[in-house]
Amino acid sequence: MLISISKARKEFLMSNRNIKYYKKLICTSFSSMPMKNILNKTANAADVIIFAIAFCIPLWPLGTIILTMLWLALSLISFSKKSFIEGVKAKPFLILFACYFLMHIIGLVWTSNVSHGWKEIKDDLNLLIFPILFILYQPRSGSFNFIKKGFIAGAVLGSLICFVQGIYFTLSTGDTGHMFYALFSALLHPTYFGMILIVSCLFLLGDLFFPEGRG
Q1: What pLDDT, on a 0 to 100 scale, did the predictor assign at position 18?
Q2: Per-residue pLDDT reduced to its tens digit, 165-197
Q3: Rounded CA gap, 13 and 17, in Å?
Q4: What's the whole-model pTM score?
Q5: What are phi and psi of 138, to 5 degrees?
Q6: What gap in Å lies between CA 68 and CA 173, rounded to an integer?
Q7: Nearest partner of 64 among 145, 158, 138, judged by Cα
Q8: Cα–Cα distance between 166 and 184 in angstroms, integer?
Q9: Residue 178 DSSP code
Q10: How many CA atoms within 13 Å lie on the side-chain side of 95?
Q11: pLDDT at 24
């Protein structure tokens, strides 16, 4: 009986050691994950959110809105009057966008089509939100290059998705129109998607010909 209890106790201690070992292994693995390295490298949660927004722009418009609201919430939670004033002094041109938005609101006083006016206000809300976000945002060394990579990665993945679905429907239907314009651009309006691809190419060309200007 005593032998069996001693054996059970030994097995229990061994199992605890195994649990501790696996916990340590999991923690070590997590610390080597890319996102953990990204957070340690940038030390700026806003950079990670903007990276995700930039990645979603070519792929998922709704995701861009959700992440922007998350960024806005975090910015308001950590809001300080001092950092806001410093941001305004450093980026005074952003105030122009907010003034343009306020002009729309003032214009509602003279409009007869109020419902359409409020629709315009809703559509132009980003002219107020993004200036506030970028006034509060304090980039660090390498922030732009980090965010730019997210935008390029999203554009590349979006292009691959469009290309694969274009090939699939072309082979399925025999209609080569699926490789062009609206039928090809399955994720966004083709004009917007084209602009995104152009900007991505400009970023890549800039890194190729002016590598010293990165970041």
Answers
A1: 45
A2: 999 999 998 888 888 888 888 888 899 999 999
A3: 6
A4: 0.69
A5: -120, 95
A6: 39
A7: 158
A8: 6
A9: G
A10: 8
A11: 53
SS3 110: coil
pLDDT over threshold 90, residue 118: no
On whether the CB atoms of residues 54 and 148 are closer than 8 A, the answer is yes
In this structure, the number of other CB atoms found within 10 A of the CB of residue 70 comes to: 13
Element (H, E) at 179: none
Cα(66)–Cα(44) distance, integer angstroms: 19
The answer to whether residues 136 and 79 touch, using CB atoms and an 8 Å cutoff, is: yes
Task: State the amino acid at position 69 in one-letter form.
Answer: M
Structure tokens at 142: 């390498």
Residues 6+ apart with CB under 8 A from 63: 52, 56
Report how far residue 102's alpha carbon sits from residue 82's, in angstroms, rounded to the nearest whole number: 24
Closest CA to 68 of 137, 161, 140, 155: 137
Q: Is the dihedral of CA 141, 146, 151, 156 positive or negative?
A: positive
